[in-house]
Amino acid sequence: MGKIWRSIFSKRMLAVLFMGFASGLPLLLIGGTLRAWMKDQGVDLTLIGLFALVGFPYTLKFLWAPLLDRFVPPFLDRRRGWIVICQALLAVCFVAMAFSNPAASPWPIAVIAFFVSLFSASQDIVVDAYRREILKDEELGFGSALAVNGYRLGLLLAGAGALPIADAYGWKASYCTMAVAMAVSLVFTILSPRVDSKIAPPKSLREAFVQPLVEYFSRSGAIEILVFILLFKIGDQMASDMLNPFYLDIGFTKTQIGVVSKLFGFWAVIAGGLIGGAVMMKMGIFRSLWVFGILQAASTVCFAVLATAGPSVAMLATVVSFENLSSGMGTAAYVGYMASLTDRRFTATQYALLSSLMGVPRVIFGSSSGYLAKHLGWPGFFLFCTVIAIPGLLLLLKLKPGPSEVAPRKAQKKKKR
Fold it and tell me: Whole-model pTM?
């Protein structure tokens, strides 16, 4: 037990938390927060909608991930060097956005926002690789939970933090504050532990681009794993996409929705990540996927119950808390499992490929969620979201723990003998 607590409060975990925060910070600054700024300045809604395209690099980051595996900056180490470069460029971009005028000149800010997306996606690639390489195999579950929670705190500052600052001091002050937050993250990156220098980068571009794919697809069950990654969160994601319209439709006020989702939902998902991480340190990531996956499905059923019960604030708080708690656990296990699948020689490339698949179900199936809700009714829609999660759980019967989970267990068995 003492070993677990030492792992939880180690410098490695603190580094993972802060890097997760830095990864989450840029997203809303070129998303919801930027759209709020543009709306506030009277920009046309059609143009505001087109700004969603600046996020395209997030979906294509696997294309240049091999370059970040192959080349090593001349300072710090293989991972922290790239992270510092990305964070410095992001801070500069935030300042540039602060001194822009989206109403008078929307296209320059679109270009800057695109570069924020590019540098942010690149930071994500290397931060994910750093987490995989700096943590011990048995620490991946809790480390992934901390990273996800840090990411959510970054989102919170960029959304719930940036808007009140803009209201009180203006948008320039808001975006400059975000630049300072990124600069502070840069300092923490410099002070973070070094990665293992024994892990040599690929020797050529061909090796960097081709070998990660060859290594992955030579494994038993490689295709089944990809299908599992596509399916594990699909029901949870489809349900979450329609929650606000659902709440309004059954009679909750916007104030009730906002207070309950912020007061109960946010802290429940943070708690879920921490509890899930602690459970994974005891049970392992693979077995936790079963437990958390079942809880995710059960929480979706609760929305069907809420749909029939009507606008009860007490029930809303209970259901939102349970859903966010189970979602936090499931996401932590999901992210930890993907990390456990990567080969340390090609961490950036393989993790970027796997994590890119996470967003596919939301894009493909999420677009049909409104149609399904309209024709099935709210109880039927949430029951459908529950059922569609079952294939992902059943796939676990065919899968095996990642290589990083198998090795520690074998070592533990040898020690017992």
Answer: 0.78
